[in-house]
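Repro case for the chain-ordering regression, as requested:
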Amino acid sequence: MPLYESQSIKIYNSLNGEKQDFEPIIPGYVGMYVCGPTVYSNVHLGNVRTFMSFDIIYRYLKHLEYKVRYVRNITDAGHLENDADEGEDRIAKKARLEAIEPMEVVQRYTVDFHNILNTFNFLPPSIEPTATGHIIEQIEIIKNIIDNGFAYKVNGSVYFDVLKYNESKSYGILSKRKVEDLIHNTRALDGQSDKKNPQDFALWKKAEPQHIMRWPSPWSDGFPGWHLECTAMSTKYLGEQFDIHGGGMDLKFPHHECEIAQAEATNDKAPVNYWMHANMLIMNGKKMAKSTGNYILPNEIFSGDNPHITKAYLPSVARFFMLQAHYRSILDFTNNGLLASEKGYFRLMDAINLMDNLKTSSTSSVDIQNWRQKCYDAMNDDFNTPVLIANLFDGAKFINQIKDGSATITHEDLDLLKSTITTFTFDILGLKNSDKEVVGSDKLSSAVEILINLRKEARVNKDFALSDKIRDELAEAGIQLQDGKDGTTFTTN
RNA sequence: GGCGUCUUGGCCGAGUGGCUAGGCAAAGGUCUGCAAAACCUUGUACAGCGGUUCGAAUCCGCUAGACGCCUCCA
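-- result from build under test --
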């Protein structure tokens, strides 16, 4: 029996603001689409947080033995910097500034994106399609929308007719906006001439002569509208209706709203059952922005080379920090927060690394089965990683108590404890074990064992000057000795 | 201006009508030659003001503040 039959999860659905029981369209199979990055500059931490949230969701669904197809796109077609009918797209702009081809920009930052995600120990998605690889599919969708009467052509461009759509459907269903309000509140944009109404959005844009990224279409040489690629790729790989669509909160409107409209206008069906939105990452209480200097690159966290942090942090520490907040909460990235998480992370790892050396007893003083289910309950409740982590700390406490002799565990329970804590910590949360290791069998361990024995002799002889010298100098070298009831162990790092 | 979200103990951060979140920091204790680590104990928090209720941090209203979206953005 697959695990998902005994562990039922609830997902907060942005569509109705409720936690709902998750029931995939096809039992046992899950289709999940997440809006990926536009590759025109280095990934920033906010992107990382969003994708991390869905990495966890992907990992957990897989752990529950669902067959998951996870599609996360790369937006490599440039889109305009604003919604006016003129202006440069961001990739082209970057290309011009650096005097390179747009596709060089795309390549450079796609590689950067993958590198950073690898460093953070992300699982690759099942399919990672690109927008430029699906121009034909996008054109086909536009044709359909035109045929269905929800789009109009003007001067080689094609626009989605929001008012027309709203007559039979509801534009704003996801973001809870009313079209009337949008009309009243849309700012007048200069140079806007082609659209019938300001809230209409482009499906196809005719390219200006200097525009490099362009493709032929029935309407003009041009490029697709930003919202269209996700509709094209999600439909192609997951079908007209699929289970989960995710992205950052800031994409809810207009991007996801437009995706729904496009899909409905094409297939007359709601495309997605569960919409999920990851909340924003801010820094020191404010939005991250390059322009104000309130900004940090992922690599700077690993190197410590940024004025907002006081030291370098392991990727797993940054990951742990982010997972200590729920994905639907705004998270404030601060040095103090990182520092606190780092200590907690090492505490958890130290306990996990102790497990192999625990003594078992004929009875268990802790209910491991119950604890294990609490770990599942946390994740089943809309992927509540902070609560899961709290439970993992309880597990760490059990381990330490057993080591101290203030708790006991049977061999069977210890196996369950081990498999549960490592599965959740490494497979589901995607953390990596620290460099710290308890005594192993390598040369370093042998050498440290010799020093530990020398120190022991010195202590027996009450030569505390020598014993403390050994302890302190090892500490300086990054090796910490821990005196316990059953002798001395050590950790590195 | 419109729409929406949020405001929890020293800090971070869960929860949500009555029952300990957790981490970090702090205090006391056990252990130790001394430390460190670990373990035990300690905090009685939920922006303010009203209302609903037997009971609210949790529901409703108002006020204040923060943030997001409304224009590219994860």
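Ordering looks correct now. Residues 3-278 of chain A form a domain with the Rossmann fold fold (CATH 3.40.50.620).
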